[in-house]
Amino acid sequence: MYICKADFEIKMKSIKNNNTEEINTISLYRNEAFDIGFYQYFKNIKNNKISQILNSKERNIKFNEITYRQLNSWESEELLTVEREGREWRKFSIIDAVWVKLIKELREFGLSREQLKTTKESLEFASKKCGVSMPLLEFYIAFAIGSKMPVLLLVFKDGTAVPASFIQYKISKEILGMENHLQINLNEILQGFFPNVDLRPKYKNEIPVNINEMELLAFIRVGDYEKIEVCYKDGRMDVIKGTERIAANKVSEIMREQAYDEIKIKRQGGKITSIVRTKKKKL
After folding, report:
1. Phi first, then psi: what are they for 262, rounded to 5°?
2. Which residues are within 8 A (CB) of 64 and not within 5 positions of it... i.e. 6 or more apart?
3. At what angle do helices 32-41 and 135-146 cross, to 10 degrees?
């Protein structure tokens, strides 16, 4: 299973029972700011206090509507992975607890074991690279709690699941179109675990903007650029250019990764005095 780094498509690859490979493509609006934010969040995971809280198994989490028999069944079906020794009590993190609640919700909608396994695999994307069990789910939960961002989990017919903010979902549905799917309100699930804390999502006033204007906002919100230029062609936005200064010791890394469209190096007295990188976004 993998997620491509394109702006508009998420591809899920799964191996079916007959060992044939099947690729499902889901159109979901993303932009460069999402990719930067996602990998920045997991860059120094050992010192990420938010992640530590979300993955700590020291909390006493109770499931009022879920029986131990159900938990045992889901564990035997490999839908639930909880570390424990012998017959001791299971310990759940917030991420674990949300996943348990999702299993219950999706079971009630009639999803099969195989569909739920696909859901689990979808949410475990890049788990080894990021160092946590369900990176995509954690990333959106962090924003749902910290910023009260409205977050949905979109679950498609084969069980493929993708978390999305309300804005991402709205743009994807209106501009790109979307297959029939189930929607699970993650904010509501989180509120159920913390009844004494106000976690109600904030729906900001919507300003009518088009896709290109959304890309410009993404460039602005990254916050790394000291100058942003917008080039027009035939009366329409055509290219966005972001210019930033970078440290001299980063030159070889940036050139090796080709993470630039244009780079200018100034020298004085045999030493590098400034490095300016320009990144372009063709609209």
Report:
1. -155, 140
2. none
3. 100
Q: Which residue, chain included where needed, has tokens 């994807």? A: 172
Contact status, residue 250 vs residue 272, Cβ threshold 8 Å: no
**CB under 8 Å to 9, separation ≥6 — which residues?**
25, 26, 27, 28
Distance CA 176, CA 60 (A): 42
Q: What is the dihedral of CA 85, 90, 91, 94, to 10 degrees?
A: 140
At residue 123 the predicted structure's pLDDT band, cuts being 50, 70 and 90, is: very high
The pTM is what?
0.66
Q: What is the pLDDT of residue 186?
A: 94
What pLDDT score does 13 carry? 43
Assess whether pLDDT exceeds 80 at residue 169.
yes
CB contact at 8 A, 45 and 130: yes
Boundaries of every domain in the chain = 9-193, 211-282
**C-alpha to C-alpha distance for 27 and 12, rounded to whole angstroms:** 11
